[in-house]
Design goal:
139 residues; mainly alpha; 4 helices; elongated
Amino acid sequence: MNILLRAHSGLRYVVLGLLIAAIIAAYTNWKQAKQGDSKIYLFALIATHTQLLIGLILYFMSPKVNFDLISEKVFRFYSIEHVFMMIIAIVLITLGRVRSKKLSGADKHRTVLFFYAMALIIILAAIPWPFRNLGSGWF
């Protein structure tokens, strides 16, 4: 369990980096009206889905997920808030990628930019940063 927890905590930085890179690439490609697809969009999608799989395993194994103690801040966050916000963000990333595949030109990149940026905002709000006092560290 400790290995999965460390992997999940460390992979968050890879996911954030790939999402930021995908957003920058989408913005640049949109403004330059490029036609092709960028592989960084796919890499961000794969990384977030990998993070989701590890997170779901942890969700069903973690002692921090406890619906009996839902009135406490830490248990409520891990039992409900974190998982649902992350699922919403990953659905947005998936929708952005799927919709962009059906479009061409600047519309493709604008779609990725919109969906990935919305997902990034949700992910940043749902991460248990150390300064939020949710029992989590930087790694």
